[in-house]
Recover the amino acids of this structure.
């Protein structure tokens, strides 16, 4: 696998919080962006620590780790720039970001490397499924969407696809403990889901404060519909994670993602 360090030039001045027609779908991604610069520096530290722990026969993973760190660093830098604009209209989001960041600091300070590595691998499975979801399942939400926001997410999630197997391979190379991996998936999904839900609900409380009762009812219906779709998409993918031979490497490239990867690779040359 060759991971490319792309450095897109993205500007977000005046980028809208309502970036697509479906406020609830949009808020789900706003919540995701809020937490991105909290989790990605954590992943980078965990993988940097992993380099010294790789058994000799797995040293070839060092290059992938370096490139993974470069990609994730670019992700959180871009999301920080995006979030700085979004936080002007949604200042309360800083609190959600800080809460998540505090958790990762605590993980690094007090949890084992095995825990952090398994958590990172679990996180990356979620990033991979979100990539497939965005590219293949969300056309109904994206007509007329803000191009800068959509391009940011497409670039980011296409790279999540590209580096999908790095954390898994590193965990397997150093620890390879199946039951611990399964336990960590359950922990990580609950942990991430809890944070994302709290941030999402804050956004939606803010949005619904100005809605009429009829608009509010419609908003809640759209939210239920989106949730149902997301769960129906995620569930079979989560079940596959629990198989002992789970391997993200053969996952096929989401429709349209390769064009995005090629475009930003050229733009970074
Ligand atoms: Fe990322
Ligand atoms: Fe990632």
């Amino acid at each position: 696998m060759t991971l490319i360090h792309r450095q897109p030039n993205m500007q977000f001045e005046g980028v809208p919080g309502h970036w697509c027609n479906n406020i609830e779908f949009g808020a789900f991604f706003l919540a995701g962006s809020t937490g991105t610069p909290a989790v990605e520096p954590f992943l980078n530290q965990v993988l940097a620590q992993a380099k010294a722990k790789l058994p000799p026969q797995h040293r070839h993973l060092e290059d992938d780790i370096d490139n993974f760190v470069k990609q994730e660093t670019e992700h959180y830098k871009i999301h920080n720039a995006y979030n700085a604009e979004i936080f002007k209209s949604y200042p309360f989001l800083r609190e959600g970001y800080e809460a998540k960041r505090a958790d990762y600091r605590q993980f690094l300070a007090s949890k084992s490397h095995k825990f952090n590595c398994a958590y990172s691998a679990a996180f990356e499975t979620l990033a991979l499924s979100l990539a497939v979801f965005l590219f293949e399942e969300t056309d109904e939400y994206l007509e007329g969407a803000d191009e800068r926001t959509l391009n940011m997410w497409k670039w980011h999630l296409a790279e999540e696809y590209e580096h999908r197997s790095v954390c898994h391979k590193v965990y397997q190379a150093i620890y390879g403990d199946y039951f611990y991996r399964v336990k960590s998936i359950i922990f990580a999904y609950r942990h991430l889901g809890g944070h994302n839900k709290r941030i999402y609900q804050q956004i939606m409380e803010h949005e619904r404060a100005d809605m009429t009762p009829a608009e509010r009812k419609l908003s809640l219906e759209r939210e239920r519909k989106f949730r149902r779709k997301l769960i129906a998409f995620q569930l079979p993918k989560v079940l596959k994670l629990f198989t002992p031979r789970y391997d993200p490497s053969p996952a096929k490239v989401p429709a349209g993602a390769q064009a995005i990867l090629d475009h930003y690779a050229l733009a970074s040359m």
About this structure: The two ends are 19 Å apart (CA to CA).
